[in-house]
Amino acid sequence: MFQKAGASYRILDFVKRNGMWFKVVLIISILVRLYLAIFTEGTYDIDIWGRHIAGINKTGLIGYYNATYGNDGLNNHPPAISSFMVWISYAGGLLHTPFKIIFRLFFTSLDFAVAFYILKILINNPYKYLLTSIYLLSPVTFILSAYHGNTDSSIGLFILAAVYYLSRKKYMLSGFILGLGSWIKWTVFLPAPALFFVIPGIKHRARFVTATAGAFLLGHFLVLLKDPNALINNVAKYGGQMIQTTAGIPVWGNRIFYPDFTLIYSKFFNFPTPELFQKWLQWSLGHNSALIFIVIVAYSWLQRHRRDGIGIGRTVAEVFCILFAITNFWSFQYFAWAAPFWVFLGPVLFLAVAFFTSGYIWLLYSFVCGSYLLLGRWDFIGHPYLPAPVLFFRNASILLFVTCSIYFFYSALSKNITAFLFKRIRH
Fold it and tell me: Cystine design at 153: which of 127, 131, 145, 254 (Cβ 3.0–4.6 Å)?
C-alpha cells in the first residue's frame, strides 16, 4: 500500500514539472490538428464560408449582407471577420493551398495561444501543465478548432486574454481585447457581465466599457455609417438556431426533457396545473434569449467578489455552463467558446465536463461522417436518427450542465445571503 502511495506521489510530482512529457503533449497536439486540418473534409460550415466569400467578392460586403438577409444562407458574421476570411481565401490561392486547409490551420493554431494564457492565469497552480495538456488533448477542443470549420474557437481566446489582463488591473486593455473579439462574433459579450461586475469603482468600469466600445466601433463603424440595418438585421438579430436532424431529433437543448419535466411535475404538484406548467415551458422556449441574458447578469453579479484570474475564469466557465443548460438555440459547436474556461472549474468537474462533451462531439461527428477518424464526408442531412451512444452523451452533457447550474446558483445565493446577514448583524 505504501509503495502504491509513493508511486502516486511520484506521478503527481512528475506532472508538476514542465519536462519532456509536456513537450510530447505539445507535439501530439500539433500533429492531431495538422491531421484534421489537412486530411479531413470538415462540416457544412466550410462550404457556407466558401459561398460567403464568393458572394462578398461579387457584390461587396454590404450588398451581400442585404442579399442574404431572410435567406438560409444568411451571413451573420461581423464585417471584420467576413473581410478577413476573404483575405484567407486569397492567401490560400497564392500559396496554392485549399481554403478548407489554410482556414482551419489558422484557427486551430489559436488553441496554443489559449494554452499560453491558461498557463499564465494558473501560474501558481502546481498542476497547470497537466490541466493545459488535458485542454489541448480534449476532442471537444481540437475537433471544433481543427475539423469543424468555423471561427468559434477564437472567441474563447479573446475572452481569456481579457480575463487575464483584467486580473492584472489593466482595465482598458482588457476591455479593448474583449471589443476586438466582437469582430469575430458579438457573442463574445455573453460573459461580459462577469468581467464588468468585478471591476472596482465607476472610474475603472467606465474605462473598461469605453475601451470595449471603442474596439467594437473600430471594426464596425464603416458598415454602421453606410448601412446600419445590414448589421442589425444580419448580425445583431441572430440568436442561434434550433438545430435538429431531418427526423426532428434535437442535437441540443433542454427542450428534449420537457415531456419528462411535465410528467414529474404532474406527479408531485396539482397547482399550477400540468397544462399551465407546460405553457410555462413553451413560454421559456419562446423567450430563451431574454432568460439567458437575465440569468447570466444575475449570476455574474452574485460572483462579483471573485477578482483574481482563476476566480474570474471560474465565473466565466460557470456562466457558459448556465448558457448551455438553458439554451435551445446555441448548439454543440459553441462548446468552443467555453472549452478554455473549463480548466477553472476544479479538477473533478473539469474532467466530467471535458469527458461528456468530448464524448458527444466525437461520437456525433464520427457518426455523421461515417468514420471514427473523421475521414468521411460530413452528411448531417443523411443521418436522420442518432444512435444510442450519441444520445446518451448528449443527454448526459445537458443534465450535467443543468445540475451544475442549479448548484452554482444555490451556492452563490447562499453565500451572498449569509454575507448580507452577517454584515447586518455586525452593524
Answer: 145
